[in-house]
Design brief:
Layout (H helix, E strand, L loop, with lengths): L2 H20 L7 E3 L4 E8 L7 E9 L5 E8 L2 E8 L8 E3 L5 E3 L4 E8 L8 E8 L3 E10 L5
Parallel strand pairs: 2-10
Antiparallel strand pairs: 1-2, 2-3, 3-7, 3-8, 4-6, 4-9, 5-8, 9-10
């Protein structure tokens, strides 16, 4: 093969590599409000007949204190805060500058009135509403393992 063909292939490979570096990196399971980042909203699979499920997630990069005031998804009739700060509505304080978790080890988001069993590896749309950060379209992941 002539040397010009090898140079063209090297040039194409170099351009492709450079373009990959210039493009924004995909961030799996990260969602952004105006003033914070939400990481990996997830729950475990449920058995048939289960009426609720615990949803865990993390909030960080908080530049202004906020509150999670709503959570809706097609898989449940409603949501509430459970655990240490249990209340029959969604109202969860997120302080500025801190990493805050909703998980079964403290306070958590509970989806109530499940409409069907949640199966491992499925994802469902979920809308999170914040007092200051607005509405965030997220995805609820049904996982086997616990990440938070």
């Amino acid at each position: 093969m002539p040397p010009s063909i090898h140079r063209r292939a090297a040039l194409r490979a170099g351009l492709a590599f450079g373009a990959a570096l210039a493009l924004p990196q995909a961030r799996a399971c990260e969602y952004f409000a105006d003033n914070l980042r939400i990481t990996h909203p997830w729950c475990t699979a449920t058995r048939p007949g289960a009426r609720s499920v615990i949803v865990s997630m993390m909030f960080d990069q908080v530049t202004r204190p906020d509150r999670l005031v709503g959570a809706t998804t097609m898989v449940a009739e409603g949501a509430e805060i459970g655990g240490q700060l249990a209340r029959p509505e969604v109202d969860f304080a997120i302080p500025e500058g801190a990493e805050t978790h909703l998980s079964e080890h403290g306070s958590f988001l509970r989806l109530v009135g499940l409409k069907f069993p949640l199966e491992v590896a499925r994802t469902y749309p979920m809308v999170l509403t914040f007092e200051h950060g607005g509405v965030v379209q997220a995805t609820l992941n049904v996982d086997l393992q616990r990440f938070l």
